[in-house]
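Subject: sequence -> structure tokens, single chain

Hey, anyone have a minute? Need the predicted structure for the following. Not urgent.
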Amino acid sequence: MSSRREFMKTASAAGAGLVAASTMGVVSEASAHQTSVWGGEPYTGPREMVKNSKILAIMNADGTETLGVVTAKGVIDVRAVAKKMKIAAPTTLDQLLQEGNAAGFNKVVASADKSGVAYLKESDITFGRLFKNPGKIVCVGLNYRQHADEVGMARPSVPPLFNKYNNSLAAHNCLLQIPPPSVSYKLDYETELLIVVGKQMRNVPESAALDYVAGYCTSNDFSSRDLQIELPSGQWMIGKTLDQYAPIGPYFVTSDLAGDPNNMQVKTWVNGELRQNSNTSDFIHNTQKMLSYISTYWTLEPGDIVFTGTPQGVILGMPKDKQVWLKKGDKVVSSVGQLGELKFTLA
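Reply:
Had a minute. Here:
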């Protein structure tokens, strides 16, 4: 799935007569900064991954969704500080990851105190979507041993891949608008670790794969099981990609702060009842394997995101007489490691 960013880069590079030279996981940086689609002057500095940061998205009164940085003093409003201090900096997580302007971002954070812009209270923030326009949303299915066992399926020898689309992206604390029962009623939760790519990667070996990760998030691969499984031939795409079927948040946590992605607790609560309680150590294919395998088939770009599968405890895995599908008014909480609790309510 090509994004507008990728199209603009390709068109500009062709016009300039530039050709990107790539080797095993190494790509010429010359092609990375030909055109900016974010407005203003294009960023032409070095591409760097952001470090030592916990980031959220702010839904502003004007309808825009911009960056906030969680600190001990409160949340830094990146757009407000950048404007006040006249710093050329990314104002969305997509822009930060895709352009790689960590220097501008870091300058904003360092200037927050002297800017005079007030720190925000997280409790006062309306959360926006962390991601609005990633180039690719790749999903790995059936990736926990105990989950494969509970649904009676063989453990796959390679990661089964499918995808979501940008229409499915949703924010922390959102009201997830479920379809009418005539369209789908077998609604299920799937709490997952989300991998966020930070560097372009192609044919990267497992031994180097984690070097390409910018950070991680808590996510939920919300699913319509009747559409996914019961339609003729099974319709995984339809069952996984309805509007708002990919809540992510509340934070993006950089890889240096997140901890070991292959040893994170994964939990789901529905209306306060614990439904999933596992650990990514139960992965069939660990983080390195997933990324390496995916990069065999596609070039993963900065800002691409990867859903990594869900553990046991989903409604689909329960005995038929115990399957009570999610309904309007249900409150779902997803937790992965120290990445924060993602909350949403069905509406």
